[in-house]
Amino acid sequence: MRNGLSAADLQEAAGALARRALELPELARARTVAAYVSVGSEPGTLALLDALRERGVRILLPALLPDNDLDWGEYAGEGSLARVRHGGRMALFEPAGERLGPEAVTTADVVLLPGVAVDARGMRLGRGGGSYDRVLARLERAGAHPALVVLLYDTEVVTSLPEEAHDRPVHAVVTPTRVRRFGG
138 burial class (0-12, 13-18, 19+ CB within 10 angstroms)? Predict the structure, then answer.
């Protein structure tokens, strides 16, 4: 479905997603948000990141490490991003500045997660690299309890997904047309 979206579709969905996400009380209260910069046809995040930054929110963005874990750096606007290619995979936009370490995510009030689907229980299907599974495990080990929110398109909210022992449910999914909350 994502591959069939035009540039205009992507831009329109990104604006709607940002407006919907900014209505979340968790984001209204947040001082620090761990997020990511969308790539390709993922639901667009830059409009949301810039709106949060205008509110004075500290935004942490991931930098992929060789072992697929994530380090973090601060977002200071689109000019603070570097396009980084990791092996033969898609190029990612990462913070160009100082690295804060993998534990920096434990300071976030909200963690915005990428994904390809979420089910009726709040179980998120990622892209298969395990980077965010490590983030969620790190948060659990640290006793950190940020709001976990996945950003998707409407068609990616499904009835059921396979689940593995390490999977953790998210608290909410935001799509361009709605917010759906899950237990917990």
Answer: middle
What is the rounded radius of gyration, in angstroms, for the C-alpha atoms of the chain? 15
Please list the residues that pair with 147 across neighbouring strands.
Answer: 110
Predicted local confidence at residue 127, as pLDDT: 78
Q: How far apart are CA 121 and CA 7, in angstroms?
A: 32
Give the Cα-Cα-Cα angle 80, 30, 34 (nearest 5 degrees).
Answer: 45
Counting as low any pLDDT under 50, the low residues of the chain are: none
Question: How far lies 20's CA from each of 60, 67, 83, in Å?
Answer: 20, 34, 27
List Cα–Cα distances, 74 to 101, 139, 154, in angstroms: 11, 18, 29
Joined together, the tokens standing for residue 34 give 């761990």
Q: What is the pLDDT of residues 127-172, one digit of tens each?
A: 777 899 899 999 999 999 999 999 999 999 999 998 887 778 999 9
